[in-house]
Amino acid sequence: ATVSEPAQKCCTENIQPFLASILEELMGPVSSGFTEVRSLFDKEVHEIIQDFQKTNDITKLKENMDQLMNLPFNSVKMEPCYLKVNLLQELLQDLKSRFKVYHIDFVIQRTQNFMQELMENAVYTFEQLFSPNRQADTVKVATTIEKVKLRVLK
Asked: Could you give the CA distance from residue 143 to residue 54 in angstroms, rounded to a whole number?
């Protein structure tokens, strides 16, 4: 009871007025990281479509699909996404001194984990909606892949 009123006053005066601007500032790198995940997925599926249109090879398509399923675990391809979030390091340093925010690395790591999880969900959903085994007409495969990609990106 003795601490409640001073703590509430401190939060109201020293933290609450800054919350909206802090959130806005932090969301920049987070949003750009998730946008990069979306772009990477789009680019990878687009390459699968291009490759299939050149070859019409269902076996090669299955190999490409297997590679797509491993995309969330491909650190080289996911690295540009993760780098976008590393900008939080600089932004959180200022917060650390002003508001005693600790565990900056944990915030960045969790954000990157969510990005990987988002990619896992995207490729899993893509796999569920499109299976090369169910495609009887190779003429429609590229169109089907594009439709499924757009559905997943929504």
From this structure: 14
Q: Name the pLDDT band for 136 (thresholds 50, 70, 90).
A: low
Instruction: State the DSSP code for 15.
Output: I
Q: What is the pLDDT of residue 58?
A: 87
> DSSP class of residue 73?
G
Helix H or strand E segment including 119: helix 104-129
Tokens of 86: 């590393």
Mean pLDDT score, 79-83: 94
Dihedral in degrees, nearest 10, Cα atoms 85, 87, 89, 94: -130
How many C-beta neighbours within 10 Å does residue 63 have?
14
For residues 91 and 68, the answer to whether their CB atoms sit within 8 Å is no
Contacts of 151 (CB under 8 A, 6+ apart): 129
Record the pTM: 0.81
